[in-house]
Amino acid sequence: MKKVSKYLSPKVIKRIRQEIQDSDRNEVFFVGKLDDNQIVDTIDVVARGNNLSVPIISDYNLEINVVIHNHPSGILHPSQNDIKIASQLERSGIVSYIINNDVTDIYAIYEPKMIFSKKDIDVDELVNYLEPDGTIAQKLQGFEYREQQIEMLKHVATAFNQDEIKVIEAGTGVGKSIAYLIPAIYWSIQNKERCVISTNTINLQEQLLKKDIPFLKSVLNVTFKAVLIKGRNNYLCMRKLKKVENEGDLLIEASERKEIDTIVAWSKKTKDGSKSDLNFIPKISIWEKVTSDSDTCLHSKCEFYHDCFVNKARKDANDANILIVNHYLLFADLAMKGLGSDIGILPQYRRLVIDEAHHLEDVATSNFGTGFTKFGMLKIVSKLYCHDKTKREKGLYIHLKYELTKFNIDKNLTEIDRLMDSLNKVCIADAIDLHQMISMTLNDIYDFVSSNYKNSFGELKLRILQDSGINTDWKTRVLESLENLIKKTTTYIKDVKSILDKVKIKSKKINETVFDIKVEINRLGSMLGTLEAIFFNNDDGYVRWIELNTFSNHKIIRFKISPLDISMKMRDLVYDIYPTVIMTSATISVNECPDVGGFEYFKKRTGLHLIQEGRIDYIKLSSGFDYTSQVILGIPSDIPMPGEGGFSDEICDVIMESVKISNGKAFVLFTSYGLLNLIYSRLEPFIVQAGFHVLKQGLESRHVLIERFKERNSSVLFGTDSFWEGVDVKGDALELVIITKLPFRVPTEPIIAARMEQIDREGGDSFKEYSLPEAIIKLKQGFGRLIRSKTDRGAILILDKRIVKKYYGKYFISSLPDCKIVKGEASLVLESMNKFYNGKRRKST
Question: What is the 3-state secondary structure (H, E, C) of 218-271?
Fold first, then answer.
């Protein structure tokens, strides 16, 4: 309980008590002013409500700087609506407090010390760094003056100063990261506010942390701190490690002991306790036993609280000006806050920069949804109770029995005897039955779905629709089976909680084990909630589906649910909360695209259409490259359409000939593993015979493949989705990018299908408004792999003649940078390529 006198003066406390009493102890909404000591010294009543809510006013007197309302229940935890309103008010310098009816307790959503006079950053001062005679030019070898970079810096700095949202498309070579880092750093220092920089790829994070930020520290006339924020499951939990170290025989397999011992030895010398600091990659099953989780954390009750690696990382983050995160961590933090948590993953921040923003919708959709696998569900039950390969009992129940037995020596407590009996007859016995039921039920659903629905390349994604239950077989084999499983598991959870709630033994170890069991039981309950939401909830705002595939002869089934539209969540959790939001990428707009041209597509997909126009600015900055002299774009028009007979044969011939012309140095990009594997299997021996190295996605990690591509001259890399973007190969190592098909997303993907149906249902055209712009943005990403500097030159080959034969092809071409385009028979295109490369080679000799 916080001391009310820290926030409210005695006369204000007395006045509030009287006003609440006069309002029959219902909710009352007050506004007031802080004195020089940051204490509320004057108040006024502006609204009265009932015992659950109170209306608020939207037009505030600029002289007030605090709002107060009471919770008659005495529970001062803020609702999500309380947090949303408080965040909106805080942008205007108004703090929010919640009090109980007797004004003896208070919850300050924002501390008054956090409210300060905003100090605008000097845009001209920042621009000077990037001028031809600026500090950066003097210290950066090979510095190139870029008007577009200065223009972007000005826009970002203005957005910080004026609390704006800026959407900035900046082509490759503009120098985006420096353009947003400099204003973010200066704003953070001058205003004592953290700024978050979010990226989608590890490559960009490494560029920021290992290149851009160290360089800026050497040239800027300010001192600042930037840290990388990792999810807490990247960190070791010392409490959990100690448990498996000391009582591992009850919790882990004998075969896991050696790796656990290695982690124990490492834990005594590691500085940050993060998985990346290990000199080996631990098995997932082992790391899960020792990793830090929010729901297994004992916080200040933990004996390792002061030595906790997560706490040390948080302290480091609290001292930082710039927080570097990835999109998934950012949106996981936002999702937690969206569920009403007032403590997120990230420390408090108010300014947000989202780089690689074209991924925003996909990442937000994933994080605002949820899901689990059959294996995940079984693993929870196995954590509670299982047998190892030698038939020895293991799990948290066995560990609890062990602790109870130790505690009961010489005490002979009947309470423990009753608890042990319940553990054996209910917790353990029913866990065995539950494990079997989960396995049988989900395997039966797998068999039913896989035999009744088509799959592609061994994977099936089946969307769950409201009318799925009309089919009698579906009803009995799926819905009724799941109802029985939910009923059985719900009863089990209730029974176990009832047993555990009766444990009142004063033993730290016993209570910690009970806590760990309850965590797993709650996780099991969350999975049941997801199952019910997927199969028995008719909320049209969500997409539900099952995914089936196999791995090492194991049947893998996933259950997933995600929001159909992220617009409202983006407005409520991002745009209404953070005064400045910068979204940037090289590929955001789609030129001349019908209905969604320019930034309109990005605007609709990310909820920006819900925000007042005056707060948003859309900027497009061209690349500094001369694509007309650096690139030739070839489009053979005599190759069959994708899906027509002979397509794969024809593209094999063209790929082989073009690779010979470019002397390797090529990316061959596909939209599916099926076609990639087919073409690779046909061409690999011929490419090797021609003297080139061949690399294929999936044979090694992406990072290793890229390094090998750079190191081995004249390599040919076959890749799919992840190689279309986030890959930076400068210089002569990459001189040819072959795009086998236009990158339309699979229309049967559950989320894609649902969104297309929604657009059509509302009278739109889903192809023009969704499929087409998505594919254009992806093609721009693939095109962008080729030219990474002003000295790069090369060719792009698009082997999908729909780009010249279909009406929509012009929208693809108009969205690409201006360059020399050669269309016609494959022989003509290859001849033009040959001349282009010969001209390049003459210039370089």
Answer: HHCCCCCCEEECCCHHHEECHHHHHHHHHHHHHCCCHHHHHHHHHHHHHHCCCC
